[in-house]
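Quick one: sequence plus zinc ion SMILES, need structure tokens.
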Amino acid sequence: MNASELKKAVADDRDEMVQSLCDMLRIVAVGPESKGPGEAERGKYLVALAKRLGFKSIEVFESHDPSVPTGRRPNVIVRLDGVGKKRLWVISHMDTVPEGDADAWKNPPFEPKVVSGKIYGRGAEDNGQELIASLYGLRALLRCGIAPEFNVGLVFVADEEHGNTHGIDFLISKGLFRKGDLVVVPDHGDPDGSAIEVVEKSLAWVKVEVIGKQTHASTPAHGINAFEVAARYMIAVVDRLRSKYKATDELFDPPVSTFAPTSCEANGLNVNTIPGRQVFSFDFRVLPRHKIRVIMADMRAIADGLEKKTGAKIKLSYIQKAVAAPKTSVDSEVVVRLSAAIMAVKGVKPRPVGIGGGTCAAPFRRMGIDAAVWSTAPGNAHDANEYARIRDPVSDAQVYAVLFAGKNLGRV
Ligand SMILES: [Zn+2]
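Reply:
Sure thing.
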């Protein structure tokens, strides 16, 4: 069997892939931090699907989490052993973010709908299309009777959208991965499938709590308006950080560090009360050359100045902090192999990129394991009306199939 016959075997599964993706997206897998049920039901569905597709080695690793109804967060691993000793992992995630503003969706977010070559639904792109693509890519080898060159493990993790504690970090703590493994994380991509992400920015999510003094809105001088102090602080911080940390690196998209105010807790007050407490947060994605703790010191200094001026208290804390992991070399085996498979299937020339998002590649890179982040995707993760273009998971499944088969392609 050659590459084009294997590609055809994948393409023959197109309709089944669409069906499986839609069935999976219908099962809500939002994490408990967003008041969701976790991944238990979706995990069960995937175990049943893998069985139905003929896989024999399916394992579930459950992390204990009392904040979900089942008390467990599943991680599913589907394996197909190859002829060599080398191991190749594809790590995708089962969980999704919530729908966000429900009114912004044209169709209900958890009732996937196929419209002119696209599947609409929460999690269609992030990360459903690639999870399903990796499964059907490996299934093509099973069906065609090709042994993979590698011992392939498809890993469907929980908890990727909120810190990885019950997902990839849990699996790493079980000692499943070791140096010399090849890791593909299909959780970022560009529309033509040419971008291979080899480095990520540092990340800091910072919570800001402003304590003032509540009073009647007609006599603001009797209190300290926490909302107003929060607003002044927010603007002072972004102005200062954006002007101080403005270095660029064209490997990254966007090429600059980003400093964004994001969530804001409702203070729940009536219109004629001066708020005594206001909480909001920042999301920072910082080029690896800048130090998070230096940025935090700048934020503290601005807070100290505003505290003196206003009498308010400003407390800062990390919701999450991740210092940029080492870069995966463009000459590493996983990048070279993946590039060859992309070129063979898609005919595009792969190029290395850096991103601001954090993926499951970071913990591997910290362990000295080379990880390549890649997929073909329109780039609407977390948006309202998120969709996957059907052609992307199909052609990405072909890339996986060619990558998994490696040297064994042509020997059958
Ligand atoms: Zn994702």
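Residues 3-200+324-408 form a domain with the Aminopeptidase fold (CATH 3.40.630.10). The chain has ten helices and 18 strands.
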